[in-house]
Amino acid sequence: MIGVIDAGTTTVKLAIYDERMLVALKKEPVIKYNPKPGFVEFDAEDLARKCQMFADMAIDEYNVEAIAITNQRTTAVLWDGKTGRAVFNALGWQDMRGNALSEEMNRDATIRMARTAGMIARGVVKLLPTLKNKRRVKWLITLSRLSIRPNHTSVKLCWMLRELGEKKEKYELKAGTVDSWIVYRLTGEHLTDYSNAAATGLYDSYYMRWSEPILEIVGADEEMLPKTLESDRIFGEYRNVPITGVIADQSASLYALGCWEKGELKVTNGTGTFVDLNVGEEPEASTGGLLPLIAWKLKSETRYMMEGMLFYSGSAVEKLKEIGIYDDVAKTSEMAFKSRNEDMLLIPSFTGLATPYYVSMPGLLYGISNAMTREDIAKALLESLAFRIAEIVDIMKKEFPVELKRIRCDGEMSSNDFFLQRIADVTGIPVERGAILSGTSFGAHLVAGRAIGKWNRDFCMPFSDVFERKEDIRDKYEKWKKLLNIAMKIKL
Amino acid sequence: MIGVIDAGTTTVKLAIYDERMLVALKKEPVIKYNPKPGFVEFDAEDLARKCQMFADMAIDEYNVEAIAITNQRTTAVLWDGKTGRAVFNALGWQDMRGNALSEEMNRDATIRMARTAGMIARGVVKLLPTLKNKRRVKWLITLSRLSIRPNHTSVKLCWMLRELGEKKEKYELKAGTVDSWIVYRLTGEHLTDYSNAAATGLYDSYYMRWSEPILEIVGADEEMLPKTLESDRIFGEYRNVPITGVIADQSASLYALGCWEKGELKVTNGTGTFVDLNVGEEPEASTGGLLPLIAWKLKSETRYMMEGMLFYSGSAVEKLKEIGIYDDVAKTSEMAFKSRNEDMLLIPSFTGLATPYYVSMPGLLYGISNAMTREDIAKALLESLAFRIAEIVDIMKKEFPVELKRIRCDGEMSSNDFFLQRIADVTGIPVERGAILSGTSFGAHLVAGRAIGKWNRDFCMPFSDVFERKEDIRDKYEKWKKLLNIAMKIKL
Fold it and tell me: Do residues B413 and B463 share a domain?
C-alpha cells in the first residue's frame, strides 16, 4: 500500500492506495488566514502537524510501503534550520501582497536586460527559423516575456526576507515550497523535486538550476534553497518508511491522466482550472503567455509542459450559488442543458482572468433581458469557462503544431457534463473524463510506486466518459471574444 | 361617493372614494394573450364586461354620485358601431408587432417632409431665438423628431385596418383607446378626453385636433375616431349616474400629486416608470427625446406636460427576484442600504431603455468579482433605475429652464426607500413620497369631483416622506453613463 499526502489549498488529504485502488481517504481542513484583502496565509506549523499525523496514520493503520507527497505550488515557507520552526506563516499562492513588490522587481536592470535579449532573439528567429529549436534560443525567447508575478514564490520569499531585515542574522534560514517543508519536518532533509522547483519563478528550467540573477533580485542565496531531486528518488525516511513520489499537483494530474508524451493535453478543473500540454523531452518557449514548466523529472525520463490557467472556475460556480442563482452546484449541468438562450455571455473575471491576460478587471454579464432565466445564467457561466479554456488551447495549437487528439479532464468540477460537452463543442477536440477526479493524489501514488519498483509507466487512470463535439459553437465563441476585448478596454 | 374604474395593464380596479378617502378597492385580473413573442393582446369584451360589473357594483353597493375612468394609454380598440362589439382583440401598448409597419410609416413622404420642415425650424430658431416661444415654431421643432413608434395607437390601428382589408366595408368601424371603449359600452357615446387623445400619436396637441396627415398614413378617417372632451365634462350616464373624470393614467397621477403648475415634476414607479413635467399652459417642443403630451384639459384650464419613461423598473426588480437574487422585492431597499460595493453597475435594458434611447439593446451587469453579494446586485439595480430617471430629469432641466423644487413620487415601487433616496442623491432634488401610491385612481376621482361641483383644484394627496440628498453620487452617475455609452455601441 502507498499513502499519499495531498496538501491542497483548502484541505490536507491522506489517500491510501492498494494495488492502484483507492482504499481510504481522510481530510483535514487547512488553517488559512486573510489578515487583509488579498492576503492569504497558511499556518505552516499546523500544516506540518497534520501531515505528520497523516503519515503516522498511514504507517500505523495501513502499513504503507511508501509515502508520497503532492501539493499546491508556489506557496512559500521560510523556516529556521536551528529550531526547525517556521519564521512566518506560509504565504499562499493566491496571496497578492507582492503586487507592488513584483512591479519593483520587474523594473530591475537584469530583468529589463533579459527582456531585451529575448526580444532580440525573437527577431533573430524570425530571420532564421531553424534557430528556434535550440534550447538557448528558447530560453532567450522565454526571457522576452519574463515577468515576476505576485503569485510566484520568488516574490513571496523576497517579501519575507525584506520583512525580516536585520533579524535575518538570528536564523539559519531555509526556504521552500510546501513539499520541501513537509519533507523537512518528516525527515530533516532540505529537498524539493523539479516540478515544484520549476514553478517557483526562482528556477531556470532550461538549465536545471536555481537562477542566480533572480536569486540576486530576491535577495536570497542558493544555500537557503532545497536541493532538487527527481520525483521518484527517495527523499528520506519517516519511521523507516521511504518518502518518495514528491511531485507538484498539476504534474501529478498530468501523469495520472496518462498524458505521458508530447501533444497530450489535460485540464484540471478545481477551484481554478489548469490546462497543461506535455511538450516532450525538450523545454519550449511561449510568446503567447503560456508558462513553461517541468512536467516531471524522473530517474529515467524528463518531460516539460506548458501551462495556461483560469484563476476562478469551480469558485465561480460556487459564487453564483452564493448570490442565489441555484442552491446546489450539482444542478448547474442540468440547468444549463435546459437553457435555450444564445444571447447571454459572461466574462468570468472574478479575480482577473489569468492566461494570457494578466490584467486586473471586473467581470461582466451581457445579455440581460426580461426573458432571462436562472438556467441562462448558469449556461453563460459554464460556457464562458469553456471559452476561456478554448483560448488557452488555441494558443497551444498556434505555438506547438502538434495534433491535439483529446483533452483529458480531472478535478471535481469535471463532473459537470454540460461543461465538458461545451469544451468539446468549442474546441472540436474529444474530451475524456477521468474516472478518478482527484488525479493529483493518484498521480503521486503512481510515481511513488515506480520509485519503489512496483511498476513502470504502464498504467494511468481509467476514463468514464467521452464528450464529442455535438454542436459547433465557434461563432458564439468569436462573439464572446469580441465582448472580452471590449470589456478589457472599459475604463470608467 | 365617487367610483373610479382604473383599467390598468394587469388588473381592472374599482376604487370607491368618500370625501376624498379611499373606502373600498376591488380588483379583477385582465385577460391578456401573448400569441407570439412581442405580441400583447387584451380581450376587449372581457375588459368591457368587467368594467360594467364594477360600474354596477359602484352604483348598487356604494350609491356613487359619479363614475370616473382612468386607464393605460395608447392601447387600441377597434369595434363595430352596428353591433357594439370589438372586431379584434385590443392591441396592448406594449405590443411590438408594429415594428416593421412603423418603419414603413416613417418612410412616408409626409413624415419625411415634416421632419425636414422641423429641422429648418430648428435652424431658424438658432438664429432668432425669440421665435422659439411661438406655438407654430414649437410644433415645427417637434416635427423634426417626428417618429411613429410601434407603441403608438396609430400603428396599432393601421395594423388592424390593413388586416381587415376589404372586410372594412362590412362594419361601421369605430376606433379608440381603452377609455373610449369603456365609455362607449357604458353609454353608447363615442368620446375620449384630451389626455388620452394626445398619447395616441394620431392627435395634434398643438392645434387640438386629430392629425389629418397621420390619419392619411394610417388609412383611417376622422369619423372613425371619438370626439374629444375635457376630462371634467359629463361623458354620458350609466344607469342615471354621470360618467366623468375621464383621464389617462399619467395625467391623473400628475394631478393627484398636486403638480398643477409649470415646473412641477412627478415620477410614477410601477411596472415601468413615467417621469412627467408640467410645462404650463402652452405646449412645448423637445429635441432631446421627451414626448409632448396634454397633461389635462378641463373646462377651466389646460396644462401640457413633457414625458420621459423607463419601460422596465418595477418589472426589473421582479425579474431579479425570479432569478433568485432575493425572495421578496420588499427586502431590496434594506439589502441595498447594506451593500458597501461602489464598483458594480447595471445597465437596466430589459426590453430596451426608452427615453431618450429608443434602441433595442440587451442589459449588462458590470463589476462581477469574487467579492460580490446579493446586496450589491440589488443596489446596482436600484441605483441604475435612479440614474435612468436622472438622465430624463437632466434633459428636462436642459430643455426647460425652470427650477425643479421637488420630485413627487407615486406608484407601488415608490415604497422603496433606497430607490427614492438614490433619486434624491443623484439629482440633488428633494423627493417627496405620496401617501397614496395609487395616484392614478386618486387623480381621476379628484377630476370627477370637480366635474360634479364637489370641489375645485384645492386638494392633492398628502405626502408621507421627504428624501433629501445625503450623498452626492454624480461621479458614480457619470461613470454609469460612460458604461451605458459603451454598452450601446456593443455589436457582436
Answer: yes
